Amino acid sequence: MKKIILTGDRPTGKLHLGHFVGSIRNRLKLQNEGNYDEMYIMIADDQALTDNFDNPKKVRDNVMEVALDYLACGIDPSKVTIFIQSEIPALTELTFYYMNLVTLSRLLRNPTVKSEVKLRGFEESIPSGFLNYPVSQTADITAFKANIIPVGDDQLPMIEQAREIVHSFNRVYGDTLVEPNALLPDKEVCRRLPGIDGKAKMSKSLGNCIYLDDSDEEIKKKVMQMYTDPDHVKVSDPGKIEGNVVFTYLDVFCEDKHFKQYLPEYQNLTDLKEHYQKGGVGDVTIKQFLNNILCEVIKPIRERKRELENNLDYVLDVLKKGVEKANLKANETLKEVKEHIGIDYFTNPNYLEEMKEKYQNPKD
Ligand code: ATP
Ligand code: MG
User: Fold this and answer.
1) Which of 1, 21, 182, 193 has the least C-beta neighbours within 10 A?
2) Distance (Å) of CA 256 to CA 44, 268, 317
3) Ligand 1 within 6 A of 23 CB?
């Protein structure tokens, strides 16, 4: 079976460290290993409009922002098709057909939809477009016959929903669509990176993010604000690791080489954790250490982004070429879908024959 990869992001803001460890790092790994047939990355502007319909400028502006972030992170347009969702009309058509295969109560039970409805204050009246976004996400995935979807764990209910729709479609209309599988990061903590407040996942909507183009000063300010252990008041106090965001981030980003460079008193993270738990390590020490590491991760991305900002014609051209390629593939799938449903009146010569047969040889 072909290996086809598809992922996307909502253009509702800049990309942050949660995107980086939850999805982008896996995309880069797949891209660089090259062991796939096709790879697509979608900027989901239609999906972003489902809860930002009254602020289209935000979505419009962030399409370029997200495209810049992708290229700055090292997504290579010669290997990956980057495209804008709203430019692919087949996706909207597919959504319409798939809506028949999902009940309202199933959509309302989707755990990610549930929590997002609450977060957005939609409990009283949910825009039907928003409620349907898992269906449109199924269209995005199946249009490209994608079977590998690198995502964070908030997307698991979406992939499950997509698999159900694929099953229903294939059962009702015959084998057409391909079942997708989520590809989660190996490390558990990367599947849902908490925000700097430690309360929930890092998310644009919650304003608890470190962005991939933050300046050294911004990174420092945010790291210094990070939630640690409220009972660790004096340096000599024993400190807790669990729920301590600084250690969560160190688990994700720290490598042994960083100790030699920035904190040579310790061999590795296990040593540092042991000492912190015993007492004798200050929060400022661990924060400064993390700050050095995060600055090192973000600096090259930020610098590439600043260069690309002077080359927006190139970025728009990448999107335009991606859209052309994506349309070819999505239109092919739409054609197949319509053939399987039987709504292919002009492209299927059998239609006329069938109708002639029906009217010329009536059964009774
Ligand atoms: P919004 O608040 O607008 O929903 P978001 O920050 O949740 O934005 P999305 O565009 O919805 O970002 O997510 C894009 C991808 O990044 C998804 O695959 C999602 O699982 C992943 N992702 C987002 N935030 C995190 C996080 N904190 N940890 C791990 N993965 C994440
Ligand atoms: Mg989200």
Assistant:
1) 1
2) 37, 5, 41
3) yes
Best mutation site among 5, 6, 15, 23 for ligand 1 pocket (most ligand atoms within 8 Å of CB) = 23
| Nearest atom in ligand 1 to 154's CA | 20
Query: DSSP per residue over 229-293, as a string?
Result: -TT--STTS----TT-HHHHHHHHH--HHHHHHH-TT-SSHHHHHHHHHHS---HHHHHHHHHHH
Would the CB of 248 count as within 6 Å of ligand 1?
no
| Cβ atoms of 97 and 341 closer than 8 Å | yes
Binding site membership of 65 for ligand 1 (Cβ less than 6 Å): no
Q: Which of 231, 227, 257, 261 is nearest to 244 (CA)?
A: 227
| Burial class, 125, CB count within 10 angstroms (exposed 0-12 / middle 13-18 / buried 19+) | exposed
With a 6 Å cutoff on the Cβ, whether 193 touches ligand 1 is yes
* Structure-token pair, residue 229: 């252990």
One-letter amino acid identity for 204? K
In which residue ranges of the chain is CATH 1.10.240.10 found?
213-308
Q: Which tens digit of pLDDT belongs to each residue from 32-85?
A: 999 999 999 999 999 999 999 999 999 999 999 999 999 999 999 999 999 999
CA–centroid distance, 321 to ligand 1, in Å, is 26
Whether residue 152 has its Cβ less than 6 Å from ligand 1: yes
Query: Which residues are bridge partners to 7 per DSSP?
Result: 41
Q: Of ligand 1's atoms, which has the minimum distance to the CA of residue 201?
A: 27
Q: For the domain covering 4-193+313-354, report its CATH number.
A: 3.40.50.620
Tell me the pLDDT tens digit for each residue of 102-124. Answer: 999 999 999 999 999 998 899 88
Yes or no: is domain 213-308 CATH 1.10.240.10?
yes
